[in-house]
Specification:
With about 55 residues, this protein is mainly beta. The protein contains no helices and 4 strands. Strand 1 and strand 2 form a beta hairpin.
């Protein structure tokens, strides 16, 4: 399963501000905008926009 965290402060290692982070298990797949329309996989959403979903 993929996990998408949106709206968090990201340090990479320098601060880059609020960004989306896409995770697969213990790996970071992407830092930056993620287009969920192009994915046919189940994604668990976390962040300010997706609280409680």
């Amino acid at each position: 399963m993929l996990v998408l965290i949106e709206g968090g402060e990201v340090l990479a290692p320098e601060p880059i501000g609020a960004a989306a982070v896409l995770l697969a298990g213990d790996r970071i797949l992407k830092v930056g905008p993620v287009d969920l329309e192009q994915s046919n996989r189940k994604v668990e959403l976390h962040g300010r926009k997706h609280k409680g979903r």
